[in-house]
Amino acid sequence: MEAFYTLQGEGAHTGRAAYFIRLGGCDVGCHWCDVKESWDADAHPKLTIDTIVEGALQFPGRMAVITGGEPLMHDLTTLTATLQDAGFKTNIETSGVCQHVTGSWDWICFSPKKFKKPNPAIFEMANELKVIIYNQSDFAFAESFVPHLRPDCKLFLQTEWSKSNEMLPRIVDYVKNHPQWQISLQTHKYMDIP
């Protein structure tokens, strides 16, 4: 769908320079998704892997973040191998709903959604759990994954942007009472960058 160089605005790598590769295609259907134009994979041009990697190499940062849509709808084996051969760390953000996790990953951000159950295979692979908090019941939804994850998996709660005024104070209180969690803010939106 698009590719751009910016700062990672969320989660464990917040503030780091990153080349984002946003792939078209998603069948999860979050009503609050801020990139609904990514859902239809056929609405976006097809690029060769060499073209994608050449675009990434134009910038000095060597962290590539594959996102979507739902990026695991695609076989990412060759893309991640080519990126890593070119010196990139490969990160992904996924809802974990796909049957297979393809690709070679330095970091997996698992961001489950209530609208479609994840494949349990993602649990042992996740380096980071990031749950979007839209309403009060999302705290219990977030906690439901913790027993299934590795002990070193980082835990993040992030308010859905349109609900920040309402939910951010609740997340602050929750993290104060459950310190195994951290807050993830969409810092790129505060900075007004992509």
TrEMBL record:
Known cofactor(s): S-adenosyl-L-methionine; Mg(2+); [4Fe-4S] cluster
Reactions it catalyzes: 6-carboxy-5,6,7,8-tetrahydropterin + H(+) = 7-carboxy-7-carbaguanine + NH4(+)
Pfam families according to UniProt: Radical_SAM (PF04055)
UniProt KW Magnesium keyword: yes
Positions of [4Fe-4S] cluster binding: C26, C30, C33
MF-aspect GO terms: 4 iron, 4 sulfur cluster binding; carbon-nitrogen lyase activity; magnesium ion binding; S-adenosyl-L-methionine binding
Positions that bind S-adenosyl-L-methionine: W32, C33, D34, G69, S111, P112, K113
Signal peptide positions (record): none
EC number(s) from the headed UniProt entry: 4.3.99.3
Bound cofactor: record note: Binds 1 S-adenosyl-L-methionine per subunit.
Keywords: 4Fe-4S, Iron, Iron-sulfur, Lyase, Magnesium, Metal-binding, Queuosine biosynthesis, S-adenosyl-L-methionine
Residues covered by the Radical SAM core domain: 13-194
GO biological process: tRNA queuosine(34) biosynthetic process
Pathway where it operates: Purine metabolism; 7-cyano-7-deazaguanine biosynthesis
Binding site for substrate: L7, Q8, G9, R22, T67, P194
Taxonomy, superkingdom: Bacteria
Family designation: Belongs to the radical SAM superfamily. 7-carboxy-7-deazaguanine synthase family.
Subunit text: Homodimer.
Name assigned to this protein: 7-carboxy-7-deazaguanine synthase
Species: Spirosoma terrae
